[in-house]
Amino acid sequence: MNKSAAHRTIDGIWRIESPRIIAGLARRVRDVGLAEDLAQDALIIALERWPESGIPDNPGAWLMTTAKRRAIDHLRRSKVRDQKYAELGWEIERQYEPDWDEAIDDPVGDDLLRLMFTTCHPVLSAEARVALTLRLLGGLTTKEIASAFLVPEPTVAQRIVRAKRTLAAAHVPFEMPPRAELPARLSSVLEVIYLMFNEGYAASSGGSWIRPMLCGEALRLGRILAEIAPAEPEVHGLVALMEIQSSRFKARIDKKGEPILLMDQNRALWDHLLIRRGLSAIERAERLGRAFGPYLIQASIAACHARARTASETDWVRISALYDALSQIAPSPVVELNRAVALSMAFGPEVGLEVIDAIGQEPSLKNYHLLPSVRGDLLMKLGRTQEAGIEFKHAAALTCNEKEREFLLRRAADCAID
């Protein structure tokens, strides 16, 4: 294997293995930043040796063993070893040499879950949580994260550095939160993954309508969380939502990268394996026998679309009912906007327009381009094309996504032709 091919292979292995390696190290060194540094040391050694020696039969184990040795060396050299022992609760006599190999090992799932709760700790800003989670759990480089969110690379680097410092300064423990804090902390983890996926599914800015890489990383993290927290229905709900939404990628844009609306998509292009996985995740959540949360409700809405063989077969009445339920447990202007769309499809555009006009003055929607976009669509269906054109132009002026702006301006031009 040539050096370039070896490096590509190592990069792929690193993306898969790095989260559990960092998590295993962080549990013992009690410092996420140090854990990443030690894991990176192992990666550098692999990059130096593997192109010559070949990829080991079990590369993940090789990286873990190498990283463990680096951690052991660090702990042995540390001038504050006794303090570390006390912090970790180790009752060790000075003449006793601990079993370092045993000490560094622990169930992978537990460590990954702890790492998720650490990188998504509420002490960090939402932007910092996303950046740090993508870095440590997603295995993305700083450059890749910056590219995904269309922000300068130094900005992302600063966010990650500040996040690590904040966690250290706040003495955030690398452990599962107390039972009383678990729902709020789990909510934070799910929110970060949801935010990642949404940014990839409908990019807020830039020249691409979707960013599959970002969605893929969010879905991967969701799947990991579902395996290590199988008793949480909202985890399965979020995974189901992402599976079903991801199934539409090939149908969401044309060959030029232009957006294709849901009702106009070629459903033969949908990935039915992902749909089946999503429906299965919903079933797993339902078997837990607990009340539906916001992610499970959204997944159920996505399932209604997935089950419809054609756009005309969509059960909009059920979707409207699900949005009613969502608005009760997670009320927001955006939910109301989506509910208006569902109502318009189920009972006519005038019904949806009435709901939209009721939220039209909501301050949080002032610069939200989808409000005039949806309003324009409903006005167009009612034959009020001149008003619709004005709304589409307004929406185009608000969006930061180039493809979406072009799409909205074309819709405005169609209204002028009519």
List keywords for this structure.
2 strands, 21 helices, elongated, 418 residues, mainly alpha, 1% strand
**Total number of β-strand segments?**
2
Our count of helices gives: 21
Fraction in helix:
over 70%
H/E element sequence: HHHHHHHHHHEHHHHHHHHHHEH
Structural class: mainly alpha
Major sheet: size, sense and barrel closure? 2 strands, parallel
Q: CA-to-CA gap between the ends?
A: 62 Å
Low-confidence stretches: 89-108
In one word, what is the shape?
Answer: elongated
- Rounded mean pLDDT is 85
Going across the major beta sheet, what is the strand order? 1-2
What portion of residues belong to β-strands? under 5%
Radius of gyration: 25 Å
What would you say this structure looks like, in words?
Pfam families: DUF6596, Sigma70_r2, Sigma70_r4_2. This is RNA polymerase sigma factor. It is a single chain. With 418 residues, the protein is mainly α. Among the domains are: 3-92; 367-418, no CATH class. The protein is built from 21 helices and two strands. The protein has helices at residues 3-29, 32-53, 59-77, 81-88, 100-104, 108-119, 126-136, 142-149, 153-169, 182-201, 212-228, 233-246, 249-252, 272-287, 294-307, 316-329, 333-347, 349-359, 370-381, 385-398, 402-417; strands at residues 205-206, 400-401. The chain has a two-stranded parallel ribbon with strand order 1-2. Helix 7 packs across helix 10, helix 15 (294-307) packs antiparallel against helix 16 and helix 17 packs antiparallel against helix 18 (349-359). The longest helix has 27 residues, at 3-29. It is elongated. The model is unreliable at 89-108 (pLDDT under 50).
